[in-house]
Write a structure and sequence with these properties.
Helices cover 53% and strands 6% of the residues. It is mainly α.
Length: 162
């Protein structure tokens, strides 16, 4: 009696930056000739990992980058110098976005700290300011004496009396 064959599917998850594809597999995945990958590597457009024996190992990120390069050259008509420039500018934009996010976080922390310090100052002034008999708000030290009135200088006179 024949046993029914059971097919087992095993899934392996690998981080996208880990080099796992040899040049022939990466070239097939990117739909390019392996020599094209070597040329892109020589131009610095792609940098595959190397095995201990020196074999090129491409990651999923490398394959995605190869597809992006191919898209720029075939669909957009860019030459490799143009591709290099676009990739450099994209890297700069990514770097600036990261810097902006960092600055936004720092600004938010500074804003929170400033609000806390402002609230402390407000609390300290509330304790020092009291309503006076005439309805004015004066410093507590000036309102303690029933005989002393806060001194109010006219706006057009200087402290030296002139």
């Amino acid at each position: 009696m024949a046993r029914p064959s059971v097919t087992r599917i095993t899934r392996v998850s690998v981080e996208s930056g880990r080099g796992v594809f040899m040049i022939s597999v990466a070239a097939e995945l990117a739909q390019m000739h392996p020599q094209t990958l070597r040329m892109y590597e020589a131009r610095g457009l792609i940098e595959p990992k190397r095995s201990p024996k020196g074999t090129r190992l491409y990651s999923q990120e490398d394959v995605d980058r190869l597809r992006r390069i191919q898209e720029m050259t075939t669909d957009l008509g860019l030459n490799l110098a143009g591709v290099e420039r676009v990739l450099a500018l994209e890297a700069q934009v990514d770097e600036m976005h990261a810097r902006i996010e960092d600055l936004e976080v720092k600004a938010l922390h500074a804003q929170v700290q400033l609000a806390e310090e402002l609230e402390q100052v407000r609390r300290s002034f509330r304790a020092e300011l009291v309503p006076y008999r005439s309805g004015e708000i004066v410093r507590a030290a000036d309102a303690r004496s029933p005989f002393a009135r806060p001194t109010i200088r006219p706006a057009n006179r200087r402290p030296d009396g002139s």
